[in-house]
Design a protein that fits this description.
This protein is mainly α and 179 residues long. 65% of the residues lie in helices and 8% in strands. α4 packs across α5. The protein is globular, with a radius of gyration of 20 Å. The protein starts with a helix and ends in a 5-residue tail after the last strand.
Amino acid sequence: MGIKVLLWMLLILPWFTLVFLSKETLKRYMPVTIFTCLLITIIFQIAYTFKWWTIYQYIVPWGYMIDVSFAYGIFAVGTLWIFHLTSHKFWVYVITNAIIDAFFAFIALAILLPSFGIGAYELLRPWQYFLVIFALSFVIYGFHIWQQGIFKTPEEGHTKAESGELKVRGFIRSRTKAR
């Protein structure tokens, strides 16, 4: 029973840390967080299919396939915090991800989870998991850069909504009407 409480805490408690972030920061980094959740869910599905690891303890009925506590708790919120703290500093982002991914691959998933009976590697080695999750960090960084470009105009450096232009059915219309 204590392990299930720990898993619920790993799912819920990280979200409470977001009260320390501004509304603008949440709006800025939530799309990459949601995208990361999608990708980590796909990785968990692949891992289940190819038996990369086995999950023994879970808190939702489909938890044997996806570690919900990790994917939608600590990993999702951790992604948001990493982007917030390393914004526009690519090498700091890379180094931070390398350190955190190494911790998860070589300590958390290789030592802690098996010792608590939560899960264990099967056909995947810790260094292989590290490579997968580290490669994921570049994919989500690229998504974030692309997503930021959607909301900013290169000339003006602010959103189209701020400039008073709206794109409606292929036409650019100004918000201010001529009087």
